Known about the structure:
Layout: H1 5-9, E1 13-16, H2 28-35, H3 39-50, H4 56-66, H5 72-81, H6 88-97, E2 101-109, H7 110-113, E3 123-127, H8 146-160, E4 167-171, H9 177-182, E5 185-189, H10 193-196, E6 201-203, H11 208-218
Parallel strand pairs: 1-2, 1-4, 2-3, 4-5, 5-6
Amino acid sequence: MADLTHARDGHRLHLFDLDGTLIRGSAAAVEISRQLGLSEEIERLEQDFLVRGMTPDEFAVQAHALWAELTPEQVTAAFEGAPWLAGIREVWAEIRAGGGRCAVISLSPDFFVERLLDWGLDAAHGSRWPAVPFTEPIHRPGILNASAKVRIARELCGRFGLDLADCVAYGDSMSDAELFAIVPESVAVNADHHLAGLATHRYGGADLREAYALVRNSAA
């Protein structure tokens, strides 16, 4: 059972994954590639990453080459056209109004992830990519992996004066497993059975308000 001491007074840090979690059934890389007419190419790359063990930094290097002609306008179109869960802004507003904090930690490019700050986040962390349009290569050490999610969660706790015991994590894939293992409460959002078995709560659907209600109701 999660330690709900802070849940009752609202002072918790809610950590959200992006791909497959806030974006239902898709990912930033998929949406960006769709704008470039490269859906088949990114699908092959995604399979190399998800099934064949490609590392996040190698994925980034190859995606960077694939997106050589990417423009800021296409990034905007990809962000605005992504299949976001409903109610994201409302959930974050409710959490913050109650004294909590909200952050997104994602392996996806920071130039995509950081756009969510305009939706009411306290912090947004993505892999460090060069600015669009690209004039610089990928710096591999700036590309995040699953373990980096844990490191960033710890840093955010320090920033906000909280502990990992005060955190709730939301994710969909095994890249979230390390984070789920160190926080007291977690929500598997549209996740496969591997991650769902590690979570405190499981949610399948299209509305973040419903997923958040599982956390809110458990603290009542």
